[in-house]
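Hello Y.,

Per our agreement to keep a running log of every chain we model this quarter, I'm adding this entry. I've kept the format consistent with earlier entries: sequence first, then predicted structure.
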Amino acid sequence: MTNAAEVYTPGAAATGAEEAPAGMLSLRVLARLLDYPTVELQDAAGEMIEIINAERRWPAARRRSLMDWCQRIADADLLELQAEYVELFDKGKATSLLLFEHVHGESRDRGQAMVDLMNEYENAGFELDARELPDYLPLFLEYLSTRGEGDIGRWLGEIRHILALLVARLEERNADHALVPLGLLALIGAEGDVEAHREAARNEEPDDTPEALDAVWEEEAVSFTADSDQDCALQSAEGRRLAERKRDTPTDPVKIMPSGPSAG
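Predicted structure for the entry above:
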C-alpha cells in the first residue's frame, strides 16, 4: 500500500518531513487532501483513513467526515477529481491555497511575509525542494507536521482567520475541501470562527467567471523603477521591525486540543 505519510505530489516536496511526530501525521493527511489528485493519492486512501481514525484530537463526527471523503476520493474517477480541483482552485483567488494572498494580495507586504516564512523554515532545518511558494497551504502543513504542539498551535492561531474564511468560501461551493481548514480549526477549538465569515462569503461576487478572469489580465502591470526599488527596501526594513516587535510582544498561546478517549 502507498504510504500516506510519505507520498507527496510533485512540486511540494521538502526535506526534514521524516521527523514528523507520530501524533500529528494527521496534518500530512490534510496536506494531501488539499493537493492535486493523483493515482498515488487514491492508492493512499486506506492508510489516510487509518491515520485520521487514530487522531483523537478530533471528535468522532469530524473523523468520520474526513474518512468518508478519503473513501470518495478512492472510488471516484481520477479525471473527474482533477477537473473539479482545477475548477475550484485554479480559477479565481477566493479559494486560493496561498495563505498570504488572502491577507496581502499582490502587495509588497506579501513579499516580506514570504521572506519571514522562509526564515522560519530554514531556522527549523526545513529545506524546501519544491517549486511551490512557501505559503502554499499543503506545503505549510507539511512543515507543521514536523513541529511540536506549541509551534503548531501558535501557527494555527496566526492563520485562523484565513482558515475560517476559506471554510466559508469552500462550503459555499459545496466542496469537500472545506473539511481541511475546518479540521485545522478544530485542532485549536476554533470551529466557531467560521460563522463570522459565512454572510460575506455568501454575498461575494464570483471571481472565477470568464469576465472576472479577463479583468485580472487587464490590470495594470507593476513597473520597477528606482522609486519602487527604494519603496521595496523600506518595506522590507519595516517588515523586519514589525516582526521584531511581534516577537517581543507576549501573546496568549493557542493550544492544540487534547486527545479524546480512544473509543468513539
